[in-house]
Amino acid sequence: MKNFTLTHPADVGGAITAGAQPESAFLAGGTTVIDLWKLGAFEFAQLVDLNQLQLRGIEASANGLKLGALERMNAVGENPAVKTHYPVVSEALLLSASPQIRNMGTMGGNLLQRPRSLTYRNPDPNRHDGPSRFDAIFGITKQSSAPHPSDLAVALTALDASVRIQGKGTTGTPERVMKLSEFYKVPQADLRFDTLAPGDLITSVEAQVPFARRSAYIKVRDRASYQFAVVSAAVVLDLDGDTIREARVAAGGVGTIPWRLPQIEAALKGKAASPETFQAAVADVGTGAVTHSHNQFKIELLKLTIIRALIAARSIV
Amino acid sequence: MSCFQENEEVGMPDDNLSVNAENNVSTSRRSFLKQATGLLGASVFVTSWLPPSAEAASPTSAVAAKPVTATPGAGLVDLTLKVNDREYPVTVETRVTLLDALRDRLKLVGTKKGCDHGTCGACTVHIDGQRVLSCLTLAAMAQGHEITTIEGLADGDNLHPVQQAFIDKDGFQCGFCTPGQCMSAVACIKEGHVRSDEEIREWMSGNICRCAAYPNILDAVKQAAGATPV
Description:
- The complex is a heterodimer.
- Chain A is globular, with a radius of gyration of 19 Å.
- The model of chain A has no long low-confidence stretch (mean pLDDT 96).
- By secondary structure, chain A is an alpha+beta fold.
- Chain A has a five-stranded antiparallel sheet.
- In chain A, 52% of the residues are buried.
- Chain A has helices at residues 12-19, 33-39, 73-77, 80-85, 87-94, 99-104, 107-112, 151-158, 180-183, 262-268, 275-282, 297-314; strands at residues 5-7, 24-27, 46-49, 58-61, 64-68, 162-166, 175-179, 201-207, 215-220, 231-240, 243-252, 259-260.
- Helix content of chain B is 38%, strand content 15%.
- Chain B has ten helices and seven strands.
- Chain B has a five-stranded mixed sheet, with helices on both faces. In chain B, strands 1-2 form a two-stranded antiparallel ribbon.
- Chains A and B meet through α2 and α6 of A and β6, α8 and α9 of B.
């Protein structure tokens, strides 16, 4: 746990310049960075404290969702407009971590938290978990089969959300917008599963789903509360009467990155929003899954979790 | 009831004597431990802190036995921490957490170090009225904010309704998690998350009690919620 310097830049440009320096890391809520640093799993010479930046604001309506990267998890989860127009986001946040951690953790930091796995949480990159019931069943690579830990990312994946990123360019700090489906990649040799370059800073999270008020997040845990998901499901339903115009389905606890399930979405489209439809749509969810004896239960659990989420979303008036 | 005893000790951090509600005047547990350590002889305790090489090389362990010294020329930060309406100037390494600054430097030892990794809730304090984990907060991040610890809850000799409720409802056994439980309970009530037993349990779930006093903690929060305007 070597010491480090701490800077408090006053604007985004200053933060990006500092963050692009060698051995620098950003610090927002601290719930991941300080934890991993104490474990010796994350070292840096400089921490760049982002908390002076004005990356704030919660906008939620049928026209869109925009969350400042430094908004805290509880503030977003308890926001009345988010609850009304994007219940899947509110539920995912309020089912995450503990009240204290939710007062600290930010939108940007949440998306970048590391899996709760020995592979990511010790100083020796050659140490790996043995087979575990928590292992992911999708997106497994030679490097990692640890499930991505974020609930928020699963909800945002169902919303096909984007992150707005500013980074260090040859002149200034150009901005780009990336869909989460491009932002995340399955873990490579360096165990990274994001596509950020040094100095790249998430400034906001955005989504545009006018029908997201009919959405739900169901999380299955080993404890009643304060636990990472064994399996979770985020769904969004666009209904025309009883007919599904469009459905979005993503799952947590099963992928090395948040996992969208387009084949289920396709199977739901145009059908009646009935338990029979839901059951038929999830029947093949295990296609392409890689399981072993400890975690093969996740396929059946995932089916039931998605059905529960679909029923919850359908019941929203 | 360690949290309440230490609470009283903290009002006079440099004093070996503290007022105990039951015995009027007694030596606090912490002061006693410090004195006992000194009497038993420093060599046993001090050399055990040293890595083997230093131990062998340094029979006069007093100098070498300061394992936490500043990295020369770098990494120190001068802070003023505002805790319980009092300002504390302190110089710490940038890596020092708010928890360690409170306990080791400000001698506000009511806040407890449990897991030190953000999973147990024993270190819960309020920053600007919001409950957070002091073990995952750098002291330097807390500057310029209002910090409240368990020592700041009581009004003189009058316990906060939450503290009183934990006594009335027997909301602890060993007491180690109790300061964190109390800080979380105060926030939980203020946030309004006390509309049902289920809601209280959910919003108190960030504080683990190894003695499993949960039913009594629930009762204490309910009593305090009734006594405190939400």
